[in-house]
Amino acid sequence: MPDISFITPAGDVVGFEAPEGVSLMRAATGFGIDGIIAECGGQARCATCHVIVDEAWVDRLAPPSDEENEMLEFTAVPRQPCSRLSCQIRLTAELQGLVVQLPELQ
User: Which of 15, 39, 56, 93 sees the fewest Cβ atoms within 10 Å?
Assistant: First the structure.
């Protein structure tokens, strides 16, 4: 199972294991990560599951779809080069150790 680390806006690291095949958003909400609101339930329609992927991990992810890119323009904090919607990241064995940062607002 992939180990996931979320870095909070305060700089704290919250880590946990999650099953393969689920979205990063589902894993985060299931674990109770504060800062992932996920209003649309994973439909890529609200941008309230915005995360900033650590640069070391960006190339290991599938590129964002046009729909995801469009929604990233509506995040509560400005989009960054490594911004993604966590609902669009499927956890795999290759993502063991994934590190993402939570924005200050969703």
Answer: 93
